[in-house]
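Long-time lurker. I teach an intro course on protein structure, and each term I like to show students one example going from raw sequence to a predicted 3D structure in token notation. This year I'd like something fresh instead of my usual example. Would anyone be willing to generate the tokens for the chain below so I can use it in lecture? Attribution to the forum is fine with me.
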Amino acid sequence: MFLSAIIFGLLGSFHCIGMCGPIAFMLPIDRHHKSKGIFQILSYHLGRLFTYSLIGLLFGLLGKGFYFFGFQQQLSIIVGISMILVILFPKFFSKINFSKGINKIIFKVKNALGKELKKKRNDTFFTIGFLNGFLPCGLVYMAVFGALATTNAFEGSMYMFLFGLGTIPLMTAVVFLGNFTKATFRKKIQSVIPVVVVFIGVLFVLRGLGLGIPYISPEPVLDLVSSVKPCHN
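-- Reply from a regular --
Happy to contribute to a lecture. Here you go:
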């Protein structure tokens, strides 16, 4: 499942160029000193990774609760089906609006982000990345689904961390080289993303079914334990 997080990040970074690209272009990178510029962009990415890891930790804790009560496999199936439905019926899910409370939080995050972009201190870049991680993004939501289907806080955090890690190569190239990818090429990559999401959704469903397929759909741990005959002296 961790591999799916990296794939999400690598392919999703083409989507990120359109969503987070403007923020990356506006970063006050010191282009006269290469080493300083690299440090600044790394700080920006560390801020994003910290936010994603924090979100993953919270949803991993929630997933641990389901695992503790024996609902982990059912949750994995629900997560997989949800991923597939979001891709198959995008118009329906686009009509679901955030509550006013969440919209207010997002508005505050955007305001804080705008203020930080005007500064040029070294600690600014980490803060920009940290705030950037909280901005609404459909691809991040898919990754959050994956974190929710993990069994503990560490795995949830690691899932989101790897997702963020996958976005770094292309986002870094965009910062230093500008929007170097052609629009037609980005569209081709973005057209593949829904297919990948559906594929990963199917993997989550198979994982939840516990069909006994190694690495893809392993048997439930509880079933394995119950199948072991007790030892009599």
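Some talking points for your students: Residues 80 and 201 are 4 Å apart (CA to CA). The radius of gyration is 20 Å.
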